[in-house]
Amino acid sequence: MHPLPPNLPAPLSAFLTEVREIKRLRVAAGYRHTPTNAREALEFMTRRHLIQIPPIALIRDEIIPGADYDVPVRLYHPAPDEPLPVALFVHGGGHVSGSVSLYDPIARKLAAASRRLIVSIDYRLAPECPYPNALKDLIACVKGVFPLLDSLRDRLSFTPRLALVGDSGGGALCASAAHLTQFEPGVAIERQALIYPSLDYTLSKPSVTENGEGLLLERQRILWYFDSYFQRAENRREVSPLFMPLTPDYPPTLVATAEFCPLRDEGIAYVERLREYRIKVEHIHYPGLVHAFLNLEDLVPDTCAELYRRVGDFLAGPTTRDDDAKSVRS
To answer: Beta-carbon neighbour count of residue 240 at 10 Å?
Structure first.
């Protein structure tokens, strides 16, 4: 295993040193990936390092009906009397892990930063519910969120403008839903923010190998996630957002990438592809960071605060689309 990069923040470097030692001991003991230990690992890491939980004026659990599954959602309204626009938040976890409860602090911070009514989605997880169930749940929420909110007008105000926000595997679901709904009349996704997203299910980019061992998210873990998610011999290239068709109706997009994330290069390639199609795109790149750093907030608090601010600024942007693509690096 390669030495840790020298430009990692010191707290993050110490954390990764600990993770490497835990991995060494587990491998020696015959460790293998299972849904249970994957979920426990994400739960332990997130609850250990994501400890600042801001208050939000209104938090409410609801259900959005789908064709074959009623999707649990949690609403976060920072100002219930104000008609704020709406954003669906789709948590990460490789399509196998994560929940609305675990990602509650992140949803709260997105609501505060964006001044949007955040609707966090408890979509179905693999391997119990493989592809395309999670994507179907998100699309059901895209179509059903405003009927739900209409039924709650005595409790909250909102403006019927919709954005998507997702990290990691949640970013994959957001981008996939945005691609598919381009072709559906009456479905309007205003913009989307993708945070270190998974966009290439074929894992064809160099950073998957370059950053694929000893930097938290590892290539073998990603392969296991995808094998858990795709159980019916799907063509993984065809269902990868990086290779899906684009039209001028694709929403303006923010992509955040991290230097030592194995998904870095597919995020950069996605930015370049959107730019080629003259779709408005902003790109924020974070040197010295790893995948899932929002879940490690107490190790890199200033960077996390900046990312929330940048996502909030993007989601608060104008409703009109700008034909000139834009790339912002930081």
So the answer is: 22
